[in-house]
Design goal:
homodimer, 5 strands, alpha/beta, about 220 residues, Rossmann fold
């Protein structure tokens, strides 16, 4: 009998809820997942720690890539900019220019190096429509660009792309995602602040999904 | 009288000849240039030093972005892989998967942060046709992707794209590029080894341009 190498995938893991669901989805699809975690000077180092815990909980290997952005310009990188308390209209101040482009570029580099057949990203457009690099048209354009600019023997998959938060939570529930390890709050406290964009979307998602957020005590 | 902010550009600078010509071209077009230099574990740290010297010679500011690739897979990153002595057919072992994609992604992030109107890259397809991320079709696809994934208020310009080495050298000569500061050799010695791909293209280019390479003593 021939032994067959299991399918390999690179999964972008942020410590947040969405990418954890993407990871468990990829695993459920039979991929041997290699998580890629970025330590990019985000306000809360805790995200990097939680991402590692999620990778370990999923029994997946991970690599941490450190990026020192030599420029600021986003509330997520620059502690001098205040995080808004209400859902912003248009592009939020938490927008980090080209962040997903950079993360995906590293992911395809990693995928090509280890001959993985897929790259997974937990991006979705429903909630964060203010971020241009979460939109379906961006992902389609990224795929075409990556095909042209690399050997291109992998797919770029965004299984949550057209789902809203409650559907993502329902999906994660079925897949056994350890929600208690996932962080969403932009303010980085142990428990959700309940006020920032990200907390509001999470709370609404759990409510609509009919689930209880294990982070809310 | 109204004072007008000069046009700003981000220029990818590698320490090599091509990107130096791209920088001097951007300057000649009236851009105030901000150079972006990567220290990405390339075999020869000297490239980073030379890039800084070129930026200084051009009287431009620069930022150095350090990347520790947590994976290998290219002769330019992995000292265990031997650099080939002859021009390779197909994709050379010096190919770093998605390198230009990563570099350009950071450049557009930087451009968007400082509200620059252009990003310059010295890529050209004539000589390095083995690298998929130097081809015109890649650059077109990158532009479309960047438009979709960022606010997109800048152009991505590759003024050398369809030129061969001798034309690039003639162009650089006119622009006053300090060729003596530019490095091309993959083996990183003080003087070109004359054997690697990159040295061969450089030597041929200077010969065809009817110029003398100041690095050859």
């Amino acid at each position: 009998m021939k032994s067959r190498r299991p399918k390999q995938a690179v999964v972008l893991l942020s410590g947040g809820l969405d990418s954890a669901v993407a990871l468990y989805y990829a695993k459920a699809k039979g991929y041997n997942c290699h998580c890629l975690i970025f330590d990019y000077g985000q306000r809360h180092k805790k995200e990097v720690l939680q991402a590692q815990k999620i990778a370990k909980a999923a029994r997946c290997s991970y690599k941490i890539l450190k990026i020192n952005f030599p420029w600021k310009g986003s509330a997520l990188l620059d502690k001098k900019i205040k995080i808004p308390q209400r859902t912003a209209k248009g592009v939020p101040v938490t927008y980090v220019p080209a962040r997903n482009i950079i993360f995906l570029s590293f992911a395809v580099s990693f995928a090509e190096t280890i001959k993985a057949g897929a790259v997974f990203i937990g991006a979705h457009s429903q909630d964060y429509s203010g971020y241009p690099d979460c939109r379906p048209e961006f992902l389609s354009a990224f795929r075409r660009m990556a095909k042209a600019g690399t050997l291109g023997r992998y797919e770029v998959l965004a299984p949550l792309l057209r789902k809203n938060k409650s559907r993502i939570i329902m999906m994660g529930k079925k897949l056994g995602v350890p929600f208690e390890l996932t962080l969403s709050c932009y303010n980085g406290g142990k428990h959700p602040c309940g006020k920032c964009d990200s907390c509001q979307y999470r709370a609404k998602g759990f409510k609509e999904a009919g689930e209880v957020d294990p982070l809310i005590k």
